């Protein structure tokens, strides 16, 4: 039974990744291109400043993959594979929760697990460390940023599992509704504490050294030695649009996982559910 559930999760995950890619290709890709254009213009301005100051000007190097390959094959394959991985993770979580979190219909459980996956794996880490378009961010902080994001994601998933266990234990005393509210409150409080303790990206050592203490590491205006702005900071509208469409693409992926997997699980588990009811 578990293998059949996981297989369905993988197939639905591939479909979810494909649909999320189609959305991202239409709406998020223009924001990525705008970010790349910004980086190119800023690099040219920085090179002009370095040349005027008598400093060596570095070579950008050859482009390994064209933008067309990156925007279509690269992102498409990446999102489908990500969907497959999340589909497998979702199916395993579904199989674990089945029969252990109350008397829920297979369809309802599918939607709840997908919602929990979206919140725990993506939304909560995103709130603390929102995504930047590719090429936007300090190169020296890539490793630290990745580690902090993974740490926030692990904490989020762990706290979400803890909240489910807590809610189940409190249900006998306070009832399902009150227990759910108490567990959700505990999740928010503990997650908020962790977010407060972890550093913001602008507080990382490389960013403080080069730009001073900031809330984020989004590029600030480029200035010449006289303090005059020679190239603007990264456009706030582009950053907002990229982040909005990133969240929307993830929401599509997890919604497709939950909604498409639901009837498949219902058909697979219907005989078993009827036996339990009898």
Overall description:
There is one protein chain. This protein is mainly α and 278 residues long. It has helices at 2-27, 29-52, 67-97, 106-128, 142-174, 176-197, 205-211, 236-277, and strands spanning 222-223, 229-231. Helix 5 (142-174) packs antiparallel against helix 6 (176-197). The radius of gyration is 23 Å and the shape is globular. The protein starts with a helix and ends with a helix.
Cα distance, first to last residue? Answer: 20 Å
Mean of pLDDT: 89
Q: What is the total tally of β strands?
A: 2
Gyration radius, rounded: 23 Å
The percent range for strand residues is under 5%
What string gives the helices and strands in order? HHHHHHHEEH
Give the biggest beta sheet. 2 strands, antiparallel
Low-confidence regions: 273-278
Strand order of the largest sheet: 1-2
């Amino acid at each position: 039974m578990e293998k059949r559930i996981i297989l369905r999760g993988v197939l639905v995950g591939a479909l979810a990744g494909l649909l999320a890619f189609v959305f991202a290709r239409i709406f998020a890709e223009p924001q990525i291109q705008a970010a790349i254009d910004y980086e190119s213009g800023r690099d040219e301005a920085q090179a002009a400043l370095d040349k005027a100051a008598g400093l060596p000007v570095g070579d950008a190097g050859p482009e390994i993959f064209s933008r067309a390959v990156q925007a279509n094959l690269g992102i498409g394959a990446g999102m489908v594979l990500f969907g497959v991985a999340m589909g497998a993770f979702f199916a395993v979580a579904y199989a674990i929760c089945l029969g252990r979190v109350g008397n829920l219909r297979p369809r309802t459980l599918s939607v709840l697990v997908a919602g929990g996956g979206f919140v725990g794996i993506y939304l909560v880490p995103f709130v603390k460390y929102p995504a930047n378009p590719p090429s936007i961010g300090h190169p020296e902080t890539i490793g630290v940023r990745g580690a902090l994001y993974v740490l926030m994601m692990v904490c989020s998933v762990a706290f979400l599992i803890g909240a489910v266990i807590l809610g189940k234990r409190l249900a006998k005393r306070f009832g399902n509704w009150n227990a759910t509210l108490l567990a959700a409150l505990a999740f928010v409080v503990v997650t908020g504490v962790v977010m407060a303790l972890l550093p913001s990206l602008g507080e990382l050592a490389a960013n403080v050294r080069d730009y001073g203490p900031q809330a984020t590491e989004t590029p600030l205006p480029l200035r010449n030695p006289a303090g005059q702005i020679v190239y603007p900071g990264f456009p706030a509208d582009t950053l907002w649009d990229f982040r909005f469409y990133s969240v929307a693409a993830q929401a599509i992926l997890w919604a497709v996982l939950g909604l498409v997997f639901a009837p498949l699980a219902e058909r697979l588990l219907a005989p078993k559910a009827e036996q339990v009811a009898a």
